[in-house]
Each structure stands twice: as structure tokens, then as C-alpha cells.
Amino acid sequence: MAAWTPLDRNGMAARAAAYIPEGWVVNLGIGIPTEVANFIPAEREVIIHAENGVIGIGPAPPPDQVNPFLINAGVQHVTLRTGGSFVHHADSFAIARGGHLDLCVLGAFEVSETGDIANWARTADEPVKQIGGAMDLAVGAKRLWVIMEHTTKDGAPRLVRRCSYPLTAKGVVRRVYTNLAVLDVTPCGFVVRDMIPNLSWDELVARTEAPLLKD
Amino acid sequence: MIDKFVGSVAEAMAGISDGATILLGGFGDVGAPLALMEGLIEQGARELTLVCNAGGRDGSAVARLLLEGRVRKMICSYIRPASEAARLYVAGKLEVEIVPQGTLAERLRAAGAGITGFYTPTAADTIIAEGRETRDIGGKLCLLECPLPGDVALIDAWQGDRWGNLTYRESQQNFNPVMAMAAPLTIAQVRHAVGLGDIDPAQVHTPGVFVRRVVHVPG
Predict the structure, then answer these.
(1) Which residues from chain B sit within 8 angstroms of residue A169, using beta carbons?
(2) Which residues of A touch B78 (CB under 8 A)?
(3) CATH of segment(s) A9-214
(4) Could you read off the pLDDT of A55-85 as tens digits, one per residue?
(5) Taking CB atoms and an 8 Å limit, are B125 and A68 in contact across chains?
(6) Domains contained in chain B, CATH given
């Protein structure tokens, strides 16, 4: 039987990008989700929104053309596409909270079979408090996708029956792209839409806590 | 004649008292009123409550205020693990209120707009909502959020005129326009001091009605 190779960061980002149609307004979280933009061809007009008030983010600028006033949510220098615009923070989050985003893509520690997402803290009382805009985006966007490794570095499953970490939001995740599979969250639980080549069903099930359904 | 320009950062800081709640614009360093924050360090007010997006990287002006023991409490959307704010919080020397970023912006906007509270689904299903008032609205669990006014807002803008009208560059706006609305003493540092009428009225981002003092800090 041929060996299988998990997708790397770019592989996961490219997989998600392939499903984003022209015309969507999309917020990309920091980390791998930000990389999704690199895999949307320029001729496909997708409007990338950043929580700090940028609508229509374009590719990273060449080093000699950096505009110090133009950054994304990850505080990286970016460019603005023709047609883009700027708003202040309350309007930027009105876009997120008011249901004007077709899609938000976030990273996560865990996703539950009912679409709960945990992505900001590993315990309730840890000193590291990194909510940022995740709770607003997760609740406000029309659909939420998650990109994350299928398991932790120690092999513990991240697709679980119930999240063990503090929640970011409840019942909001629609689809998960992992390094092994693409899964939809449905009223019946996780439905596997796609798997990497040569990975067996049993191998995927063994790496997942929640029950999986075949497409 | 209305003239909101003051001659120096030190003059701009007049009247900020101990215990004040200070709204600090900026996202990363973009739109952060760095000269005014240095001025605040010089000015000496203590027991401050800082409201800003994040807890600040080490070496930042926020971290300096923290290091000098001038801050009692921070209200922000996140604190990075390796930072002065995290260390002080763990040591029990800093109170921290973590607010989801959109809720933070909206609480500030509400304070400036005279909205005395609002319900939002953001964070309603999380530990942030523990012990707080929630209610079902249209089948969604929602959390009551109250306005977040400041005593002082420190703002970074691109252009300013003597009426206090302001413009911003690209993503320099971020929290600045809503914070400018949310405090009785809004102080703006501007890169360019321009004549009254030089800014196209349709391009004013923050009208001068929200601004009390303007100080010219050339880039």
C-alpha cells in the first residue's frame, strides 16, 4: 500500500482557497488562514477583509514599496487592491458582526462535532489572553471554516465530541480543512468530504475522536 | 476664534489626573499616538486604566507605562504571552479585562454615541459571559455589553486643522475615530497641521466636535 503524506501549511491553505468563489467577502485569521489569500488567483475577485479596517487586501508589497500605514490583522505590511477601501474599527467589526462576511477562516485548537470552536486559550485561567477578534468573527460571519492540523503534535485528536478548551463560539463551524481531510459539520456530525491520497478510512478514524460519516 | 492647537506635547497633557481612564488608539504601531504616550510618561499620572487593542510588545510605549508602574488596569482584546502585561498580570500587579475586539470597538462607539448598552451574540456562549446578563433575542443567546467611556483619548492622525478636524492614512484609522468620540478630553497628534478649509469637508474622518486639543508632531 502506498504511503500517505499529510498536507503542509501551503497544501491546507490551497485546499481551502480552491473552494472560495468570486465575489465573496472573506476574513482570514492570522497564521495558516492568512496564507489562503496566496492561493486565490488575482483574476478571481475575492474581497479580503482585515479586522483593522482594510477591505480588499492585495498581495504583500515588494520590500522597497512598503507603505508603513497599511497593515493586516497580523501586523504584516500588505497592499490594497484597486476598488479597496478603509474603515475604522467599529465599522470594520460591523462588517464582521453584521453578517456581511460571506466567510471567515480561522485556526483552532479544537472543533467539536456540533461546530463549537476553541481557539483562544487552553485553560480558563491561563495568563495568555488572546481573544482578539475571533469571537466576533466566529459569531458574525455567514459561514466559518477552520484550518488546523488533524491532531496535536503529540497525536491527540483535535476533532472532538466536545471541546475541552474554553470556547470561542458555539455551533458555528461549517467546514474543517485539516492536513488529512476536508470535513463538513452537519446536524449528524462530521461528514468527510475529501481525504488525502492513500490515507485509509480506518487511519483517519483512528486520528479523530468524534465519529465520522462517509460522504 | 476656535483654535485647538497647543504648542507642545507637554501642554497637550495638561489636566490628566491620577486614576484616569485613557483610551489609546492604534493597531500595532499603526495609528498609535506614540508622542502623546511619551508625553503621558513624562506627565506622571498614575493608577491609570488603559484601554487599547492589545497589551503591547516589550519595548513599546504601553510596556514602558506598565514598567514604570503607572497602570492599574488594562482593558484590551489580547495580551501576548511574552510581554510585560502578561508578567505583571501573573504577578498580581495588573488587573486585566479581556474584551473581544469587536465588542471593544462597539462599546467605545456606544460611549461616544450615547448608547447605554447593547446585546450581542459575541462571547455569549463563552466563559467571558459567566455571571453576566444574557438573554435570548430572536433565538440567539446574547450578552449585555455596556459603553466604555474614557476620561482622555489619545489619538494619532495624519492631518488636523484648528477646529480639530482630522484625517487618517490607510489603516491608521483603526480605533482612533471611535475613541475620539468616547472621551471628554480627546487629544490628537497630527503629522500635518493644515489650515482651516484645507481638508475637503467630505474627506474629514473625525470632525472637530470630537476633538479638544491638537498637537503638531511632524513625522
Answers:
(1) 125-126
(2) 129-132
(3) 3.40.1080.10
(4) 999 989 999 999 999 999 999 999 999 999 9
(5) no
(6) 5-99+148-214 (3.40.1080.10)
